[in-house]
Amino acid sequence: MSALYENSYYIASVGLIAVGLYVMVVKKNLIKVLIGLSLFETGINLLFIAVGYLAGGTAPIFSTHSLLPGRMVDPVPQAVVLTAIVIGVAVLALALSLTIRLYEHYGTLNLRKVRDLKW
Amino acid sequence: MRAVIAICLLAVIVPVLAISLAEIPFGAQGAATPEKPWIHYISQGAEETGAANIVTSVVVTYRGFDTLGEVTVLFIAAIGLGAVLFSRQQRKGEKLEGASLILQTGCRFLFPLILLFGAYVFIHGHLTPGGGFQGGVIVASGFLLAYLGCADINARKRWLNATESLAGAAFVIAGLIGLALGGDFLMNFLPKGTFNRLFSAGLIPLVYAAIGFKVGAELAGIVANLLEKPE
Amino acid sequence: MVNPVLLIVTPLGLAFIIPLLASVWTRSAKYIPVVGMLFNLIVSLLLLRHALDKPVVVTIGGFPPPFCINLVAGPLGLMLSLLIALVGFAVSIYALGYIRKGATARYHALYLLLLAGATGAVLTGDLFNLFVFYEILCISSYALVAYLGDRDGIEAAVKYLIQGSVGSGLVLIGIAILYGLFGTLNMADIAQHISSVEPLHLFVPLVFLITGFGVEAAVFPLNAWLPDAHASAPSSISAILSGIAIKVGVYAVARVVFTLFDASGLFLFLVLLGLLTLLVAEMSAFSQSNIKRMLAYSSIGQIGLIVFAFGLASPSGISGGLFQLTSHALAKALLFLAAGYMIYRAGSMEISALEGMGKKMPITCFAFTIGVFSLVGMPPFIGFPSKLLIIKAALAQQSVWFTVLIALALAGTVIETVYFFRVVQALYFKEPTVNGQTQQPTGSVHEAPFSAMAPIYGLLILILLLGIYPNLLTGALDSAATELLERAAYITGVLG
Predict the structure, then answer these.
(1) What gap in Å lies between CA B72 and CA B94, rounded to an integer?
(2) Is the pLDDT of residue C137 over 90?
(3) Where are chain B's structural domains?
(4) How far is residue B219's CA from residue B213's CA, in Å, rounded to a whole number?
(5) pTM of structure
(6) B 6-65 near C (Cβ less than 8 A)
C-alpha cells in the first residue's frame, strides 16, 4: 500500500494519460475528443514534472541568500513543462478554431458523420 | 467496438509505462554527479546568470532556444486561428446579451488591476515564481474579462498585432545582438547587477518582459478573434 | 564562417514581422518567404563546404554543452537544410501567383515558420529542442492544410491535428522517460551514457519516440491522416508536406535510432516496416481516381522505400536512402506544382477531368511527365541513380533474404509505374469526354503563369542535372551517411 502512496504522482499521471487516450478513441463529439487530448497532454506534463522531483526538495528559487542548493528539486523539467503546456494551449486554440469551421460546414460535431473524405 | 480497441490500446500502454517508470524511483534522482545539467544549474546558475529564480534562468538563458520556439508556437496558433477563421460565415439570428450594470462596473474596476498584476508577474520573473508566459496569460485573462463584461474597453486588433510582432522581433534581435557582440546567439551581454534586485540578471528581465507583452497580446488577439462578429 | 543559427533565426524573425509589414504595405508579405529561403539556400551552401570536413557545432547562450542547447550543423543537417531551402524557395515563388484568396499575409507567415521549424529540427543537437521545432513544423502544417477553408480541408486538418497531437504526446512521454533515466536532454550526452542503462529499459522510450515521430513520417499504420491532408491542402502546401514535412519525420526517427540509441536490433524491423509501407501504399494508390490522393499515397510508398534503405544500416544503404529522399522531394514537389495548375484549369481533381490536358497545357504536362519518369526511376533523371544505389546496397548484404526483399520493393515500383503511366496516358492520349461523347479539343494553349513556370523549370533542370551527374551529390551524401552511422564521432564533435 505504501508503494501506491509513494508513487501516487506517477499513478495519477499515467491515469490521466489513460483516460485521455480512452476519451479520444471512444467519444464521438469533437469537443469531447479535444477535452481528451487536453487530459492526455496534462497527464504527460504531470509525468515529466514528477520525474524531476527530489524527496524533501523545495522550489528552485533563491528567495533568501541562505537557501541551500542541495535541497532543491530539478529545475529542468519545470522549464520543459512550461514549454509543453504552451504548445498544448496553442494546439488546442487551433483545434477549436477548426471546430468552429467544421460546425459551419457540416452542421454537426459528430465525428462519425464527418466522413466526406473516403478511402 | 471502439471501447474494445481503446481498452486493448491501454492494456498495452499502461503496463509498459508502469514498468519503465519503476526504473525511475520517485523522489530520488539517481547519482547526482556534477556533470548532470540540473546540478550545474542549481549550484552555478545563480552566479552565472544572476537570477534568483533558477527555473527562469533555465528557461531564458540555458534553454533560451526552446523559449524562442515556444513563443513561435504561440505565434503560429494565433496566426493560424486568424487564417482559419478568416472567412467565417455570419451566424444567423445570434444576439449576445449585454452585460448588467454591476458586471460592467466590476469589470471596469478589475481590468487595470489584473493588468497590473500580470505585469508584476512578468517583470519579476527572475526573482519570484512566474515569468513572461505566466504574466502574459494573466494579462490576456484581463482582456477576456473586458471583452465579456465591459465591451467598450478593448484594444484595437491592430495594436495587438503590432505588439505581438514587435515583441517577437525584439526577442530575436536581442539574441542577434548577443551573436554580433560575443559570438553566441542569445548570450547575456548586459551586466548582471546585484543579486535579488529588480535590475539584475542581465538580459533576463528584458526578454521576459518582451515575452510577457507578446503572450498577452497574442492571447488577447485569439480571444478577440473568437468572440468578434464575423465580417 | 556564418553561424548556422542564422539558418533558423532569420526565417523566424522575418515571419514575426510579416503581419507588421503586411498592415503597412499589403503586397509585401508574399515576397518575404522568397527572400528568407534564398538566404537559407546561400548560407546552407556556404556552410556545407565547411561541414564536409568537420561538423559545425555552435552553442546557444554561451555555455558549453551539455549545459545548454547546441546546434550540430553536420553534413546530414546541412544537406537537409539545403533541400528544405531549395524546395521552400521554389514553392514560395510558385505561391506568389497561386495564393490569392483568404488571409494571404498569414499564409506566408505560416509557410515561412513551417520551413524554419523544419530547418531547426534537422540542425539541433538537443532532444527537447527537436521536439519544439518538430511541433512548430506540425502546427504550421495543421493550419496550412485548413487554409482554403473548404469542407475537405477542414475535415482533413482536424483529423491530422488529432493524430499528430497524439504522436507528439507520445514523443514527449519518451523524452520524459529518457530524462528520468539519464538526467540530461542533450543528444550527445544521452548517446554517450546509453550503455549505462540496460537495453530492456531503453526499449520503451525508443518505441514511444519512434511511434510518435512515425506519425509525421507516415509509416504504416500511422499514416491515415496523410492522404486526406495532402489531397485537401492547397497544392503548394501539398508539395511542401510531401517534400519536406514527412522527410523531417523520417530524419527524426533516423536520428533517434542511429545516433541516440544505436539500436541495431531494430534495423530488420525498419526494413520490414519500410517494405510493408511501400507495398500497402502503392496498392492503395493504384485504385485512386483523385490525382492528389494518388500522389499522396505515392509519397507514403516512397517513405517506405526510404525507411527500407535506412534499415539496411550500411553506408551505401543510408546514402541511398538520403539520395532517394532528395530525389523524391524534388520530383514530388514538381508533380504537385504542375498538378496544381492543371487542377485549376480543369476545375476538378479527378484524373478523368484531366484528360486531354496535354494539348491545353503542354509544358506543364511535360513537366508532370518528367516528374513521373523521375519518381519511377527512369534514367537520365535523378530517380534512377537513387533507386540504383538502394538496390546495390540491398544486394551487397549478400543474403537471399535481402534479395527477396528488394525484389518485393521493385514489385512496388512496377505498380507505381503502372498507375502513373495511366495518368500520363490520360493527359496525352485521351480526349476530354462529356457524357461519353468525345469532344473536339477546345480551349487555347494557356500555360500556367510565369511565377508558377519558373520553379517548375528550375526543378526540371535540377532533376535532369542531378540525374546525369549524380556525383555532384554523392560526396555530400556519403559524409552524411557516415555522420549518421558513426556515433562516437558525433559525441566527440559535440562534447569534445
Answers:
(1) 35
(2) yes
(3) 52-86+100-227
(4) 10
(5) 0.94
(6) 16-17, 19-21, 23-24, 29-30, 35-38, 40-41, 48, 61-65
